[in-house]
Specification:
about 500 residues, mainly beta, 29-stranded mixed beta sheet, seven-stranded parallel beta sheet
């Protein structure tokens, strides 16, 4: 079976390497150290090695190059691209890692050349990661890209991606570079309607200024209508979506219905929902059933559903079924009208399966506001589980201000938790910024959920937070805990 990039279990401590401190080969601006290059192959002579980007590009000027982590009697683990580089000739570059491949700098392929990427070549537990400092850009769509032996078709627009997926839904596709969708005009429905079952890789690039207005219909709002494979390393920036006023609608900036895997995706912009009984999430409308995941992703979407009745909304996902959400965050504000359900990260979390960890190592910072008779939580709006399956939410926190109209259930962390006795572990909310000392709108205090002041949250990682997953620095995330593998974008 083919290995899918971004689809492997991975220790977060291995992701987003900053250098060669963990038996890595680093491609950087530093001088070459502990590397031997001969016959077009560069391999380490010690577990920690550096390949100068100048030396690499000079080699590419004269022929194909393979950078590997396996040397004579030496086995490094990961390849870390820590600086920008590019080449213009016809030479091909192969990056072959025993475990992880971490792209922390911009790679520019300007000629008719090829790029081959491999992870877990002999090892296991590795992944293919692209940080927000990293990207891969191809100037020539005829260039060759392979990831773990799978060939990818390069596309350079929303329309070409939609056409390619429609022609071969099981194929693998990559966005060759950033794309400004403002020239596309306004869509009346998600532009990518076909169900991808392969991998769609943004390569760290983003589609910006996507406009969707389905005022006269209820066809969904999102770049993809549904995902059945893996969508990874893809940004959708500065979206502007306006929902239907004539029927129930479902919206998510990246995908309306996620039925597979989202990895290292990111979205920004605004969504205006106007119809009653609609569903809206910042990244995904619905995160589906078992074995569905959102990992290392974030949403900064301002959701305005103040004029809709019975709206379900979440800063990252509106509804999470039996799927998992991990190492992710949301920062946009969420507003619903009368009888709405809203959460800073997830609106509605419900499942009959378990027991399992469904949400872990996540945070929400956006304000959450509702009309009368609403359910409002800084992190989750409403959580319902079959009583025998007390699924776990752990090592997460929220800071957003929460407010609701008359007869509303408002909690610093969850609006309503049913039945009582959910398994929460090392979960927190900010009592200063939320404006409430109650964890839950219907239960008050919850076991495993602790209120801390802003000062307390900024004064060292809360109890239970793993320092290999979480960091805390005054100049990052306002001094609050942040995810090392998924740091917030610089403002």
């Amino acid at each position: 079976m083919r290995r899918r990039a971004g689809f492997f279990a991975v220790s977060v401590a291995l992701v987003f390497a900053a250098g060669g401190a963990r038996a890595d080969v680093a491609i950087s601006s530093a001088q070459t150290q502990n590397m031997s290059c001969s016959g077009g192959v560069c391999s380490p002579t010690a577990k920690n090695a550096v390949l100068s980007v100048t030396d690499l590009t000079n080699l590419l000027a004269s022929g194909n190059v393979t950078v590997t982590t396996t040397g004579s009697g030496v086995q490094a683990n990961n390849i870390d691209v820590n600086t920008a580089f590019g080449w213009a000739g016809a030479s091909a570059l192969t990056l072959d890692a025993y475990q992880s491949l971490n792209i922390n700098g911009a790679i520019s392929v300007t000629g008719p050349s090829g790029l081959s990427l491999a992870t877990n070549d002999g090892g296991s537990g590795g992944t293919f990661s692209i940080t927000r400092k990293g990207s891969i850009v191809f100037q020539n769509l005829s260039s060759q890209l392979t990831v773990n032996g799978s060939p990818y078709m390069l596309v350079n627009s929303v329309s070409s991606m939609a056409a390619a997926i429609a022609a071969n839904p099981a194929g693998d596709f990559a966005l060759a570079g950033p794309y400004d969708a403002s020239g596309d005009g306004t869509y009346a429905a998600p532009p990518i309607q076909a169900l991808p079952t392969g991998t769609v890789d943004g390569l760290g690039n983003a589609i910006s200024n996507l406009l969707i207005d389905n005022t006269s219909s209820s066809t969904g709002l999102g770049l993809f209508y549904m995902n059945g494979g893996t969508i990874q390393h893809l940004g959708v920036l500065r979206v502007n979506f306006v929902g239907s006023s004539e029927g129930r609608d479902v919206a998510g900036a990246l995908v309306v219905f996620n039925e597979a895997h989202l990895f290292q995706d990111f979205v920004t912009g605004k969504i205006n929902m106007r119809e009653s009984d609609s569903v809206v999430g910042g990244l995904a409308g619905v995160n589906g059933a078992a074995n569905i995941s959102i990992d290392q992703s974030f949403a900064d979407i301002r959701i305005d559903g103040s004029k809709a009745t019975s709206l379900l909304a979440g800063g990252l996902a509106a509804q999470n079924g039996e799927g998992t959400i991990s190492n992710s965050f949301s920062t946009g504000s969420v507003t619903v009208g009368k009888s709405g359900i809203a959460g800073g990260l997830v609106g509605y979390d419900a499942s009959s399966a378990g027991p399992t960890t469904t949400i872990a190592n996540c945070y929400a910072k956006g304000a959450v506001t509702g009309g009368e008779q609403s359910m409002i939580g800084g992190f989750i709006g409403q959580e319902i589980r079959a009583e025998k399956f007390k699924a776990l939410t752990e090592t997460s926190y929220s800071t957003g201000a929460v407010a609701g109209g008359t007869s509303s259930l408002v909690g610093g962390f969850v609006g309503s938790s049913q039945p009582a006795g959910f398994l929460y572990q090392n979960v927190y909310w900010d009592t200063t910024t939320s404006g409430t000392n109650e964890a839950s709108g219907n239960e008050g205090n919850l076991t495993g959920v602790t209120g801390l002041t802003t000062t307390q949250l900024q004064s060292g990682l809360p109890a239970g937070f793993d320092p290999t997953i979480w960091g805390e620095k005054p100049k990052i995330n306002g001094g609050l805990p942040y995810l090392i593998a998924n740091p917030p974008p610089k403002r």
